[in-house]
């Protein structure tokens, strides 16, 4: 049974979703996501450090138990058109504590001002900077939520194509892997999803990919050759329209020989880990267990 805290958040999201109109502009959407981040205050022992990496604004989010040489490169969600260090600071802080890693959140360039492949270029630039600064690939976890999950996969695929060393692990939270919106759950979970709507989810990709093929593997990784990617953890809510995006990705990854830990969270919505609910903390704890299990130090 869902917690009382999650029921309250669900009601908040449903109310916000009902108030949205077809004419909602990008700036309003960006401000709305920033407002949601205000629901989750940061623990006082978390250290924040603003930085700039090759001209890309970023933030280090570090819990007291984080190891200096273990880094979690976290790519925030927001449909490629919104999101920031601010919107994902709470989640980054929880991940830092659970994984004993310093979390680096870059503010990659957003669409429509900066369409594909700007986000991928920035993610690669930050990862390569980490390597050049002395962080070993086997000490780097890469991950993200929603569009950030898709961007994580695009970054890994790009590194594979260039025959570069990849991070040791990948963590994907409700990854957006199908720009066409063809998944079965786009219809079967439409009424259950308190946050996302099929129409908006199918309309938004054009802002990022413009007129390119929506099945391009770097924007819809369910069409990519996933062989050779690192072990990954995939979490998704049962009550979200992107459920099929995760399920199909997992099937393809496993068929390609990738080790995948997959969990569908009952009565949960899109990226529920970003909220201060018991189920979110349980999921983050499981992410921590996954990382600690796969890293030997």
Description:
- The protein has 297 residues and is an alpha/beta fold.
- It has a single domain, classed as Alpha/Beta hydrolase fold, catalytic domain (Rossmann fold), CATH 3.40.50.
- Helix content is 38%, strand content 18%.
- It is built from ten helices and eight strands.
- It has helices at 4-19, 26-37, 89-99, 118-132, 147-161, 185-188, 198-203, 205-209, 243-255, 278-294; strands spanning 47-53, 56-62, 67-75, 101-106, 140-145, 169-173, 231-237, 260-265.
- An eight-stranded mixed sheet has the order 1-2-4-3-5-6-7-8, with helices on both faces.
- The chain is globular, with a radius of gyration of 17 Å.
- The termini are far apart.
- The mean pLDDT is 96.
Binned, the helix content reads: 25-40%
Topology as a string of helices (H) and strands (E): HHEEEHEHEHEHHHEHEH
Q: Show unreliable segments.
A: none
Shape: globular
**What is the assigned CATH homologous superfamily?**
Alpha/Beta hydrolase fold, catalytic domain
Beta-strand portion reads: 15-25%
The total beta strand count reads: 8
- Please, how many helices? 10
N- to C-terminal distance: 36 Å
Major sheet details: 8 strands, mixed
Structural class by helix and strand composition: alpha/beta
Query: Would you identify the CATH architecture?
Result: 3-Layer(aba) Sandwich
Strand order of the largest sheet: 1-2-4-3-5-6-7-8
Number of domains: 1
Under the CATH scheme, which class?
Alpha Beta
CATH topology: Rossmann fold
